Structure formats: C-alpha cells, structure tokens
C-alpha cells in the first residue's frame, strides 16, 4: 500500500513543528520544503545576531527526522495536487500544510526608500540577512550609531531598548500616538510609550514622508517637516503573509486550520489567516504560536485521514515575551482584542476579552501570573462560575 504523502511548505516554527508531529506515524511519508540555499534558523533569535550578542551557529534550527528539500515553493496547483519549486522540479502531494511564513512590510510608496534599501541603510529586522546587515552597519559606526526605528511594536521596542543601552542614539518613529495598543492593549502600551519618551527621541503620531541617502548619512523627512540625520533606518512595521500562488494574501483557514473549500490543504503560522466564530478574523505571527499551529494542523491532517483523534478547534494559548528597558513584557493567547481590563492584583496584568471570555493576557514584570492563564483562556465566565471548566485541546 502506498504511503500517504504529506508535503509541508516552510521550514520555520510551524513547518518543523508539523513535520515532527507527522514523522513518527507509520503510513505517512513527509517531505519538508524550505527555501533555496537557506539553512533553517530560529527567527526569534535573530535580534541577538543584529545586536552582536548571538553567533550564527546558535540560531540554527534543529531539523526533524524527515525528508528535507531546500528549494523554494513557487506555485501550488490545487487541481493536480502538485507543488512547483524554484528549480523547476515538482512534488506531488496527498495533503499539504502551507507554513511559508511572513515577510516584513516595506516602504514601497516613500520616495527614496528603494535607494536607501539598495545602499543598505534601510533594513527590516525580519530575516537573518537583515540581522547581519544591521550588525555590520552599527559596528562600522563605532561606539555611537544614529539609528532611526520606524514602528514601535515589540520588535521595535526591544530593538530601541537594547541599542539605547549600548550607547547608540535612537530616534523612534511611530504612526500611532500610543504605539502597541493593537498588540498589547492600551494599559501596557501606555507604560511602554512613557518609557520610550523618557529614554530615546520619540516621534509618535508621525510618518516618514521622504528618505534621502547621502554619502555619509541618510536624511529622513517626517510628515511635519522634521529632518533626522541617521546612519541606519530599521523598519519594524509588522508583517504580511508570504505570497505563494494561488494565495496572494495568506491562506484563509477555519478554526481547525483547514483551508477553506480545499480538501487536504491546511495552513499554520504567519501564512494562516483565521476566520472563526470565536475571534473573528485574526492572524498571529510569533514563534511559539507558529509552532503550536503547526502541531495542530498536523494533528488535524492525521484525523482527517483516519490516523488520529480530532484535536478540536485551534485556540491561541502560546506565550511571548520581550525585555524593554529592564522590564519584562509578557503575553499569552490573543492579545490583539481592544476590549481590556486591568486585573486587580499585585502585579500589572491586563485581560483581553471577547464577549464572555478572556482570550489573552498581557502584563509587565508578571511572567508567572500571565503564563498561568494559558489553560484558562477561551472559556466563558459562565462555565467557570458553574464549575464546568474542562480541559480543551491545544
């Protein structure tokens, strides 16, 4: 009997997690497809490379025991169940997990951005190549580099914090007056914003209108006419799913991570755009959640082909953290919902609510208390109050 062939596109958190979940099952042949000429690495550790704290060897990603091909997937033919690779080769599949991840948002419409990018003075912080370039520019500047960071989410905030502590001159630009509300809720975002304003030059509620690379520096013009002369511009404006035909804006999935209207296709991680009755339309792009989604997609695949139990709907419960100006910012679950309230406790904890349930928790210097919420998320208060809380599948 021919083994069921499961092909996984993407060798990051979601893809490798899915591959590990499938590798031990008899009757399943798994092929993991990564990018051409790239050794898989742990993306959450690239900031350490950029800041000169981590070597390249330490961020290599251990690979699961499965067939691996380093040949970027370019097109999926849904009708024939075939993947076309960059080399021109093709792979047939019985089932497919799309976990090709995300790409950083750029500044395509800003005059001068393309020239600055070509000059190497405008860089995102999303890939290993980005991290290496940032390290090279900062090292070339010596003790005090002038760095502008555009964006003020967790990646941008942690970058500003580390570089400021190293003695560099930081300008932090954000389109929002209070950056980070969408990711962490207003109470946490306000505290982080106040810390930024006391430690680095902040330009909140501003956008970049023009970038002009010069011989020895780069000049940024903001929308209010302010000019900033810097050595490096770091973009941290979030991510979008990688474009992979026939999906240009990610793969729409249901609460089981099954691609809508496509039998045998699943998606996980930064490539998955979720549509469900619980949280609505949402997307999470951080490492631990990607790994959890990859595991769930693999378990769903096994169930659909009669080789495992139904894992149930996917509910985000994964944790994340960042050290910003000596304070540990922690979160668990889905922290992008605008309805929040401060938990009355000794530690600073914010609950993110959807209807009658807490769906995420964020906090400052309260890692243990935040993480304890993991298995209590997505459960209606009515169930908790009546003592009918039961464990739900990851």
UniProtKB/TrEMBL annotation:
GO molecular function: oxidoreductase activity, acting on NAD(P)H
Segment forming the signal sequence: none
Cofactor: FAD
Residue ranges occupied by any FAD/NAD(P)-binding domain in the UniProt entry: 5-293
UniProt keyword list: FAD, Flavoprotein, Oxidoreductase
Gene Ontology CC terms, in alphabetical order: cytoplasm
Protein name: NADPH-dependent 2,4-dienoyl-CoA reductase/sulfur reductase-like enzyme
Source organism: Agromyces hippuratus
Upper classification of the organism: Bacteria, Bacillati, Actinomycetota, Actinomycetes, Micrococcales
């Amino acid at each position: 009997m021919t083994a069921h062939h499961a092909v996984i596109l993407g060798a990051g958190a979601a893809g490798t997690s899915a591959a590990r979940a499938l590798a031990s099952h008899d009757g399943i042949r798994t092929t993991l497809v990564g990018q051409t000429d790239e050794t898989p690495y742990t993306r959450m550790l690239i900031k350490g490379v950029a800041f000169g704290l981590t070597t390249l060897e330490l961020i290599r990603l251990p690979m699961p025991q499965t067939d691996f091909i380093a040949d970027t997937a370019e097109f999926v033919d849904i009708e024939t169940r075939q993947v076309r690779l960059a080399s021109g080769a093709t792979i047939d599949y019985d089932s497919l997990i799309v976990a090709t991840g995300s790409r950083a948002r750029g500044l395509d419409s800003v005059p001068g951005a393309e020239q600055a990018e070509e000059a190497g003075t405008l860089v995102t912080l999303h890939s290993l190549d980005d991290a290496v370039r940032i390290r090279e520019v900062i090292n070339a500047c010596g003790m005090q580099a002038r760095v502008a960071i555009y964006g003020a989410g967790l990646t941008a905030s942690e970058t500003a914090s580390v570089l400021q502590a190293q003695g560099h001159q930081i300008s932090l630009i954000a389109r929002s007056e209070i950056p980070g509300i969408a990711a962490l809720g207003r109470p946490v975002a306000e505290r982080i914003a106040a810390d930024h304003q006391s430690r680095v030059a902040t330009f909140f509620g501003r956008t970049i209108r023009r970038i002009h690379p010069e011989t020895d520096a780069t000049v940024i013009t903001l929308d209010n006419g302010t000019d900033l002369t810097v050595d490096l511009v770091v973009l941290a404006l979030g991510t979008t799913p990688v474009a992979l035909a026939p999906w240009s804006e990610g793969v729409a999935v249901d609460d089981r991570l099954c691609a809508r209207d496509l039998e045998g296709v699943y998606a996980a991680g930064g490539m998955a755009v979720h549509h469900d009755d619980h949280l609505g339309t949402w997307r999470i792009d951080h490492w631990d959640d990607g790994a959890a989604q990859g595991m769930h997609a693999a378990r769903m695949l096994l169930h659909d082909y009669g080789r495992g139990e139904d894992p149930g709907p996917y509910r985000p419960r994964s944790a994340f953290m960042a050290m910003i100006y000596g304070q540990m910012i922690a979160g668990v679950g889905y922290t992008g919902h605008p309805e929040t309230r401060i938990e009355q406790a000794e530690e600073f904890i914010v609950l993110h609510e959807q209807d009658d349930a807490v769906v995420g928790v964020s906090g400052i210097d309260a890692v243990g208390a935040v993480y304890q919420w993991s298995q209590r998320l997505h459960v209606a208060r009515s169930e908790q109050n009546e003592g009918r809380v039961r464990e739900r599948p990851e």
